[in-house]
Amino acid sequence: MDKKLLKSELISGKKIEISGSKSETNRLLLLQAIYPEIVIKNASDSDDSEVMKKALLKQAGKIDIHHAGTAMRFLTAFFASQRGKEVILTGSTRMKQRPIHILVQALQDLGAEISYLENEGCPPLYIKGKELKVSEVCMSADVSSQYISALLLIAPSLYKGLKINLIGEVTSAPYIKMTLALLSEIGVSSDFEGNTIYVRPLKNLHKKEITVESDWSSASYWYSFVALSAVGTCLKLSSYKEHSFQGDSILSEVYTFFGVETIFSDNEIVIRKIQSVENVVFKYDLRNAPDIAQTIAVTCFGLGIGCELTGLHTLKIKETDRLEALKTELRKLGANIEVSDKDLFLKSGGTINKNVSVETYNDHRMAMAFAPLMLKTNVIISDSEVVSKSYPNFWKDVENVIIQKKGD
Length: 408
Known about the structure:
By secondary structure, the protein is α/β, with parallel strands linked by helices. It has two domains: 208 residues, Enolpyruvate transferase domain (UDP-n-acetylglucosamine1-carboxyvinyl-transferase, Chain); 190 residues, Alpha-beta prism (UDP-n-acetylglucosamine1-carboxyvinyl-transferase, Chain), CATH 3.65.10. 30% of the residues lie in helices and 24% in strands. It is built from twelve helices and 23 strands. The strands form seven sheets. Strands 3-14-16-15 form a four-stranded mixed β-sheet, covered by helices on one side. The protein has a four-stranded mixed β-sheet with strand order 5-6-8-7, with helices on one face.
């Protein structure tokens, strides 16, 4: 269903409750499947996490994870290491185009029995679970950190643990550190030095309750809403920590450039627009937080300023080719934008076109990243329900914090 967003303004002072981080939740769900003593609180209510929950209960047969890339990577490692389980992992048409050969090769090097059922290097996969007895593996580090995290999550359950030798420059290191931090919370010992990670085995675990921090990626859209609002506008978001595991928590630093301050108080943050932005160019290397690239690019366009975003090579293999999607949709709105295979260049200025229909390409982040432009113009979001992949209550929250401008 398309959603027409009429030109509106943000109601200052409203509070938004955001569910637990999808990234943390999916990691903990897998760990809980291995160690049932784990109790998870404030889990994500996203489609991706629901897919993970259901898949982890299956012992055999076909498992369709739809568009859930994280689930595909994590479940591949999980089922490969579970003796006696025999599954076929498949997904959407786009999922069948997304490469997974680096992870599969690493698992095969560890002794896993995995084969491709259609196109070489991509899902669907046939997996026959078995005990993985090899304890050291090499893996390319510059594609997706989810491949590395998938191995790290099963590492404590392996007889000798696991040593991973990473080749090349590490991408999205905060997500690797998030995985290791969650392992540490359940008592797993590990070392991460240079390009080598060693995770020691964990045989026994007493009951452990873990509360998931709210999702920083979801917070990014509210930072954009505030950045595109008048000076003095603020929102409250819960539940967030000043010292977060999540790489996207750099939002509190990044959005100071757009005149937005972040105040941490108890279990929430207050984000406030404290000054207007000069006509300058925002430059940032997002290799450690590529998921907020779409939000930042749209924020810059809405403010009429330029940006140069680098380190975006992983966006080509997401739910869609996010760089090409951004270029196409922002150009429709009037932007002067160019992209390469890893960078984005947006020029300042230009007029924001009205009543443009933004395609979402089955990508939840496209829908939510473009929504704040409703503060500047009328905009239509195609296939708006795609937000349920990570933030099912997004449109309800939007309706609660905006008011239509008179005369628009």
